[in-house]
Amino acid sequence: MAPKRKLQNADERKVKRTKFILADENFVTSTTEGVVLVTGQNDVGQLGLGDEVMEKNRFALLDIPEQQIVDVCAGGMHTVCLTKSGKVFTFGCNDEGALGRKTDEEENSEFKPGEVNLPGKVSQISAGDSHTVALLGDGTVYAWGTFRDTHGNMGLTLSGNERIPCEIINEGPIVKVASGENHIAFLTKNGQVYTCGNGEQGQLGRTTERHSGRDGRGGMSKAQIERLLKPALINVKPSLKLHFENIWCGACGTYAKVAGADDIYVFGLNNYGQLGLDHRGQQYAPAHSKIFSQQKLLEISVGVHHTLALNEDGKVFAIGRHEYGRLGLGADAKDATELTEIPKLSDVKVTKISAGSCTSFAVTDKGKLFCWGMGTSGQLGTGNDEDCLEPTLVGGKQLEQRSIIKVSSGGQHTVALAITTNNNKGESEQAES
């Protein structure tokens, strides 16, 4: 009779993870200083141009005195700017605390940039519909605002809305943060991914359908709210021994790139195939996307129902819903179920992409800005409110002597970072010319 196999204890059954550390330099924000250009709706101050301007349909210069801006981020109805010295400035809607500062002491102060008080130098920023995130140089993360789901306000923490910055995750150090409309993803230095917020569409990658949302009749227990609001690891099989080297978030989806490989894992809303999966609906657990893994991708940017992808050759691809021209594939386009290269950009090398709710943008290596998608509120910056069905070169007075280095599109507004290309004029002279 064969001897009985010795039963392993729980610790012995755990799959050992190999030691893995991501390099900090992979996530350092550029120190190139630029000026901030804004276009679109300003009804709640999201352009920072004061309360007398309701809308712009071409990019306008935003003055943030004595500040060297190195990064910009458009939320749903607010905007975030990062300075070279690691300070954060916000403006726009502050109903849920998304600005992280008091705006009731001075009339209409949400309509102009104001500094957020943070305990250290900030290295990264991200923004969702009603929340903002700041990653500090020491790997700690502070956030403010709130998450929302189909039943209303969820709060940012168990305390509810957070109107001033609070430390949101204790796991770390964190090397990258990314925001969806109502969720946040965190990438640790050890290559692990944590998420928190609204999980109704599966965008947290760690909840079942049954435990992803609040019951409209009886609400949600405190324990269930805590499971959603407290950052926790995504549900990847330990036996795969996966580490991740990058993350991106869309409105209701999350994308994670496997370290040292082209493989992309996805979870969240896939009703138009924007996750690159065969089935339609929600994906609650991380799934390998063959479609996204076929390209050597540098960047992914996601709207509500469409996704843009940039590969290492500077080529831009789109997938998902076609309405309003957000895919950039022309008047005869249909919904794309595969990553489809955008023909109108085939002759240029793209370095940055950005997808808003129903908009798309691309920045070339020559500093040119292309836009396509919904233009209803002037958020494309073309000078009118027409939709663009294919990539269209953005012009205007404020772009004549400038190169675009970064663009971020939100709900109904867009913000860009630009540098001067005419060395004979200063920024103040150009603004007056």
TrEMBL record:
One of its GO terms (cellular component) is cytoplasm. Residues 200-219 are annotated as: Disordered. PANTHER family: REGULATOR OF CHROMOSOME CONDENSATION. PROSITE patterns: RCC1_1, RCC1_2, RCC1_3. It comes from the Eukaryota. Transmembrane segments: none annotated. Keywords: Guanine-nucleotide releasing factor, Repeat. This is RCC1-like domain-containing protein. InterPro entries: Ran_GTPase-activating (IPR051553), RCC1-like_dom (IPR058923), RCC1/BLIP-II (IPR009091), Reg_chr_condens (IPR000408). RCC repeats lie at residues 34-85, 86-138, 139-190, 191-263, 262-313, 314-366, 367-420. It comes from Henosepilachna vigintioctopunctata. Pfam families: WD40_RLD (PF25390). Residues 36-416 form the RCC1-like domain. Residues 207-217 have a biased composition (Basic and acidic residues). One of its GO terms (molecular function) is guanyl-nucleotide exchange factor activity.
